[in-house]
Amino acid sequence: MLRQSSLTTRVAIIALIAALTVIGIITERHFDLQEVRRFESPDGRHAIVVYRRPQVFAAPGQSGDAPGILVLETADGQELRRLTVEMLQIVEEPQWTSDRVRVKLLADWPLPH
Description:
- A hairpin with a 5-residue loop joins strand 1 and strand 2 (46-52).
- By secondary structure, this protein is an alpha+beta fold.
- The protein folds into two domains: 1-31; 33-110, no CATH class.
- The mean pLDDT is 83.
- The protein has one helix spanning 2-29, and strands at 34-40, 46-52, 68-74, 79-85, 95-96, 100-103, 107-110.
- The protein is built from one helix and seven strands.
């Protein structure tokens, strides 16, 4: 009897972990991402878009501590690069050059021509 209960518990834990993983993947890629900032390149060909990921628990005034995602995209919305960040408050204004974009301490990406 003890072995059956232990097996049932293990299966339930594995199912819960799998479900939470799938929900996390779906949430990050398709739902609940909120655009909080958009940095356009000087030539208008690219943009870095900053998305806030949903938080289950957050104290008032702590939205800057929220995790997020930086996406480098073309002017027509094609995603070129993606980076997860732990706290949105560390995202600074990007520095654009003709062939690169840099976000201090986070990203240094080449730009396609």
